[in-house]
Amino acid sequence: MRRRHVPYGGVWLVVGLVMPAAGSACARRSADTAEPPLVAVSVARLETLKDSLTAAGTVVPASTAEWLVVAPEAARIAELPHAEGDTVQPGDLLVRFDIPAITEELTMYQTGVAQANSALTTAQAALAKATLLWEQGVIPRRDFDARKEAVLDAQSALNNAQAQLDRATIAASRATVKAKFAGTIVNCWHKRDDFVQPTDKDPIMRLVDPSRVQVAVTLSLAELARVLIGQSAMVSQPGGAPEPAIVVARPTPSDASATSVDVRLNFTQPTNLIANTDVDVEILLDTRVNAIVVPRAAVQKDDDATYVMIAGPDDRVQRHDIRLGLVTHDVAQILSGVNVGDRVITSTSSQIVDGMVVRIGR
Per-domain residue ranges for the chain? Predict the structure, then answer.
């Protein structure tokens, strides 16, 4: 405050003059001249949005092109004509087992058929003789009928014996294993005269058709929940051209404690990739055509809603609550709250609030 002496009716008075504060004036001038904040924007656009899952995979023999040969029951290997690395054709003998129980049963029924045949031949000869004697009136009708009945019984016995032999022959065929398809014996764990058990923990050999392969991909249960049979995919070696494939097997975990599952894919075109090749797999989970998309960075959330900030035609900020659709690594689909052409602010500064004027970065 400054003091000043002024005359008043012959008396000098001291008057205080109040001066404006310099700081307040500067603040007003600064507020009047401050520039609006600079923001980055992205224009909402239409796009075909693809959601995919990427994972590492391995080329493996197709499930129908791989065969683990196991003994039908405890047995001795009587014949094993091929070695590991050999190529075989359909119908080629892979292994013949010596199974005493089957051999003994087959021999018994073969003997039974031979005996039944002999009995039928004897009964037929007796009937032929009795027919001649009956026609000459030498024997009574009851003896002739008895001979006919004996033939019928012998024929029935032969039919039963043959049926037993047929069943035993089918059972005996299990002792001989022949190739179901052309392929290569990639593993052979036994040799002739070895005794083997009927379990896949004691296999004889593994036959693979190398021309038929699939891709095995191990997925977590969360990833598995989004994968369906029939979804398309792309398979490629690192740095190689992708090859189209399709999901063909999506097993349900058999163990409650399982945390992952192997999904199988088939190539939709011939491939040169061979078994045991490591590949990259991208499975297409979903496709949205003509989706309104904005950068994922533009989407914000608070306790009330999900929203974006839009720079209006007058560069004034507008908050738009939105409903999200498909969200990928880079962009988000907007189901409502944003129109094509809206300038969505991608800056995330808390100083940008609804209603303020901003400058658009160039």
Answer: 38-49+288-360, 54-63+212-287, 64-99+177-211, 101-173
